[in-house]
DNA sequence: CCCTAATCGAGACGGTACGTCGGGTCTTCGT
DNA sequence: ACGAAGACCCGACGTACCGTCTCGATTAGGG
């Protein structure tokens, strides 16, 4: 996505572009965000944007990564249930922030932009899921999650309800509800004593 | 959404518009779908579209409802687990159809179009969820689902994982995986014998 | 032009249309005058306008005639020079009025609307010129104008300079200048003593 | 009018636009001339037209100037009467040409478009009148025209009758009539021996 | 340490679509 | 039966952006 040719690019311009995109998106909303507008606000030629990014979504993704890239490491207190509750509450909190709206817009755009989909997957979703996968594998090793459970499935079971509510009903679940969700889901993921 | 003023509108033109939108969306994709194009294909003035629909998404939604509006009734064999498996497999199958792509595009658009979001909610999602809610309440009465479980939460637990996979990873879960999902989720929703 | 079929037409509606056109033209200018607007302002269906008038210019022409139709009779004091000066000063004064702007707009429109040209000719210009022709013929009989002079040419010689200034330079000549004009023109129209 | 900002404009595109306007105006007439049509015919984006011209009339004016800009120099044989007859016959001949129709349309448009009026004045009428003024001043110096006669008035006296006939009666005077006109007008403009 | 080439800003260009306006026709409904 | 109301198809408006393309001007690096 962003730098396709790392050679000779003006880091200064890139910063300005990314920041302009972030600001404009907050001011006018993703729908009215335009490359023309970003260029003007950043004091940059349109070509400079087209040179390094394929779409407005890609610019915004860079802006998101700049701030979300280094997420807090997955909590590890030894109690998987508690850890997931903690992490998910933090995640949902982030969804409600200004950047959360950018993330939501990107998740929307991705439904009809394959290139952006790939980039979002690679640069944001995959890393996020990797961290979660690690925590799940750890929990499996500690016997807190059934060993035969696909980690990817576990993630879908845990995070799916949250995204469902957020993307389909435009609401973010409150903490208590997250706890209930995780408790319920974990019941099904826990090793069955009777087998 | 669609008819804002039901008075004196040409049913013939409306049909043509909706069908043209559906066809064009399949031919060129949602991103390249335009009101201009729909009007041309339908042999209709642009004003006629703007008169009755606020956006291309709204037209497409009407097209979707025309075909999905009367969904198959929720299965009721007495076995809630089996019924949900059945229904969800059907739903995921629909996601993979051509209309499924329209639905996906709408779910994307909805992330930055509040008006469309409201319409999609009201005319498609709410009815779908109502049917699921009914089935869940029935299951609760039959003792197959814990009585203290919020039906909306149950829906999110069941369908969330599917949408997560579909919207975030652009994949539809295969039937076996759906079964595993439902089994796992129901474990957490089943009445606890120990309480 | 105006009533093509005098049968069964609502005199009330016609009045309203003509007046609405006149008012709107003064408020927004001829360029922005529209049949749609006239109909709305007059509280009349568009069809009612199309039924009786072929264009917005035709409506405005009716409005003009209503007020200018019965122009003051051509002055006749026995002194042709003085009479023409009097009449032309009145005419130029009228050009500067609000209705004068309507007349000017019509003279403009007429340059690319043959139907309107014919109507304007028939209903406004011809009558005006007829009155002037009569006065000229009288003057000829009284020996104040050369007998071999085409009356139409005389009119062009007298009024041409005024219209030139008004239509090409957007100015109306002041009274003193009109006097100079007429004096000069009459010098060439006076019977030549030496012939 | 035409170039508002002379910087970096594509001369090629400008030529194409002007020529397309001229051709279209001859083919469909001024009333049906549209910027949309000009752009299409010229193979040019609409914006390129709007960038450099404020209206279709302005484009057409440029087209007119391109061909009429360098008018034949005012004849000067020493005989002012003869010279004006020559020049006016040529002018009236031009009125009857295809471009003459464009000129007539512009004179019409100018009656309700102030911006175009200013441009027409500045770029076509003023230069034409300047040439005539020069010839008149020369004639005054040679004693063929009264010295106290305003040159602008002289022009109105001479050309007014022609424009009157052309714009109000949609006819162009034939040569013989022009001669009679000029003779008559000059009689009033000649120095009076008796004063 | 200059020369050459890449990159930059700026913004014009050919396009597509927007959302609006009005033209002229046709249909519906109320008086 | 007429006329107001207004929906209809259509064409054009003027605007906004798209993505591409020149333009100098600057700037960095390899000769």
From TrEMBL, chains A, B, C, D:
Keyword match Transcription: yes
HTH tetR-type domain residues: 11-71
GO molecular function, one term: transcription cis-regulatory region binding
Matching PROSITE patterns: HTH_TETR_2
Pfam families, alphabetized: TetR_C_11, TetR_N
Binding region for DNA: 34-53
Keywords of this entry: DNA-binding, Transcription, Transcription regulation
PANTHER family assigned: HTH-TYPE TRANSCRIPTIONAL REGULATOR RUTR, TETR-FAMILY TRANSCRIPTIONAL REGULATOR
Entry protein name: TetR/AcrR family transcriptional regulator
């Amino acid at each position: 996505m962003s730098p396709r040719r790392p050679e000779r690019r003006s880091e200064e311009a890139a910063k300005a572009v990314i920041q302009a995109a972030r600001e404009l998106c907050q001011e006018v909303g993703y729908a009215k965000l335009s490359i023309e507008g970003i260029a003007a606000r950043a004091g940059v030629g349109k070509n400079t944007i087209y040179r390094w990014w394929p779409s407005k979504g890609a610019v915004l993704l860079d802006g998101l990564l700049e701030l979300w890239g280094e997420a807090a490491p997955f909590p590890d207190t030894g109690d998987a249930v508690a850890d997931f509750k903690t992490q998910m509450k933090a995640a949902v909190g982030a969804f409600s922030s200004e950047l959360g709206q950018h993330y939501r817009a990107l998740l929307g755009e991705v439904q009809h932009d394959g290139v952006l989909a790939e980039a979002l997957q690679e640069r944001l979703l995959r890393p996020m899921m990797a961290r979660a996968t690690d925590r799940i594998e750890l929990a499996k090793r500690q016997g807190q999650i059934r060993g035969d459970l696909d980690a990817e499935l576990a993630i879908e079971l845990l995070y799916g309800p949250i995204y469902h509510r957020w993307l389909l009903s435009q609401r973010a679940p409150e903490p208590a509800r997250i706890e209930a969700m995780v408790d319920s889901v974990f019941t099904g993921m826990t090793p069955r004593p009777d087998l």
